[in-house]
Write a structure and sequence with these properties.
The chain is mostly helical and 428 residues long. It has two domains: 66-187, no CATH class; 207-424, MetI-like fold (Orthogonal Bundle), CATH 1.10.3720. Helices cover 64% and strands 4% of the residues. It has 17 helices and three strands. It has a three-stranded antiparallel β-sheet with strand order 2-1-3. Helix 12 (282-307) packs across helix 14. The protein is extended.
Length: 428
């Protein structure tokens, strides 16, 4: 003690060397803080740049240009006994001719291209609902075709030479005539959420992908949750500590880092080739995603079980509870908030998986929403992949809009996980 005191008294705390040391330490700390702040700013900037790029491209897809037309439902072309087999193309041609009486021949057909290809089917469905419309004139609002939707949104430059445009000068004049008559509108594009996929961008929607994603998550949740929680409870509370349990634990941690495409190859060879399950079905996708989610759920559950203080177990055992009663009546309820958080995060991660679903065929062109988990379907990520690969200009904005919808769902799921964690979290 004396020697230390003597050395302490001999050290000059106001010396130049000591002041230089303090300045270097403070400078290093300042550099470290600056590097951390710069990293955060860079990460937020990249995130903002990505969202800005998606929004600037995709926001136009949330509105759809429509035109209101008067369609004469002539008994000459519409047979009340066979409405579906009637000549609806001719009905639409007569409707276009009624709006452009000064056009004929090729010019009239060109003006008819303003209407979406699905307009005739919308008119047909209205007549099916109300057969009394036959012999009268139906005023209906239908989407315009993709080139004129792009024209209305300013994505087609009118000053470009006609040979380099998808729409001719005569078609632009016809479109402007309808706009001057107040027949052109741009309401919110509910079809983006209510329609299934289509070759025509103005008719394509995410309904099939929503239902396919829902079925996939339902299958994944039904399999991964009980199996994952059960495996975690056994490994944490009941399994003996030996080489075999250590081997299982190491492999579970390794499986959490395996690339998702490997699980897709496994599903392709086992579920499709060996078991003969239907290709592209949400049931197969759910099984595949469940395999991917199991390691995450097991790890999160074990961490939640470990977080419960040993005193809870000791107190329950002290009053005569069995090991099973301790786990299921005391430990598991206290660990449930962490388990729910880990499960929701695993499901959110599963929603964004694409590679394994592509390998099992969930990227097919499906024009009908799946009725069961065994019907062919797509999911939101695979629908984005399909639209991104489409050559039509209208799918560019719809791809970005679908990504924004997917991001919104992921944000809501992560927000739910954060809320549940804070709402039910116990601090010991």
């Amino acid at each position: 003690m004396t020697d230390f005191s003597s050395r302490q008294t001999r050290f000059d705390w106001s010396s130049r060397a000591y002041q230089d040391l303090i300045r270097r330490r403070r400078r290093s700390e300042m550099y470290l803080r600056g590097a951390g702040l710069a990293s955060i700013i860079l990460a937020v900037s990249f995130l903002g740049l990505m969202l800005a790029a998606l929004f600037s491209t995709g926001y136009k897809a949330f509105t759809q240009t429509h035109v209101t037309i008067d369609v004469p439902i002539s008994a000459e072309h519409v047979d009340s006994a066979d409405i579906f087999g009637s000549n609806w193309r001719r009905v639409m041609q007569d409707a276009v001719a009624g709006h452009f009486p000064d056009l004929e021949g090729r010019a009239l057909r060109a003006a008819g291209e303003i209407l979406s290809n699905g307009a005739q089917f919308m008119v047909r469905d209205r007549v099916v609902e109300a057969p009394g419309l036959i012999g009268s004139t139906l005023s209906i609002t239908v989407p315009v075709s993709d080139p004129f939707d792009q024209l209305s949104k300013g994505l087609v430059d009118r000053q470009t030479e006609e040979a380099n445009r998808r729409v001719t000068d005569a078609q632009i004049a016809a479109f402007d005539k309808l706009a001057q008559e107040g027949r052109i509108s741009a309401p919110f594009n509910w079809g983006m959420f209510a329609n299934v996929d289509s070759r025509f961008p103005e008719l394509a929607g995410l309904k099939g992908a929503f239902i396919g994603t829902g079925y996939l998550l339902l299958v994944c949740f039904a399999i991964a949750l009980p199996v994952g929680i059960g495996a975690a409870i056994y490994l944490e509370e009941f399994a003996p500590r030996n080489r075999f349990s250590d081997f299982i634990e190491v492999n579970i941690n390794n499986l959490a880092a395996v690339p998702s495409v490997v699980f897709g190859l496994l599903a392709l060879s086992v579920f499709l080739n060996w078991f003969g399950l239907p290709r592209g079905a949400p049931f197969v996708g759910g099984l595949t995603i469940a395999l991917m989610s199991l390691p995450t759920i097991i790890i999160a559950t074990r961490a939640s079980l470990k977080a419960v203080p040993p005193s809870i177990r000791e107190a329950a055992l002290g009053v005569g509870a069995s090991r099973q009663q301790v786990v299921f009546h005391h430990v598991l309820p206290l660990a449930m908030p962490g388990i729910m958080t880990g499960t929701i995060l695993a499901m959110a991660n599963a929603i964004g998986e694409t590679a394994p679903l592509l390998l099992i065929g969930m990227n097919a062109f499906i024009t009908a929403a799946p009725a069961t988990p065994f019907d062919s379907a797509t999911t939101l990520p695979t629908q984005v992949f399909i639209w991104a690969d489409s050559p039509e200009r209208g799918f560019v904005s719809r791809t970005s809009a679908a990504i924004l919808v997917l991001l919104a769902i992921l944000v809501m799921m992560n927000a739910l996980a954060i809320y549940l964690r804070r709402r039910f979290e116990r601090r010991w």
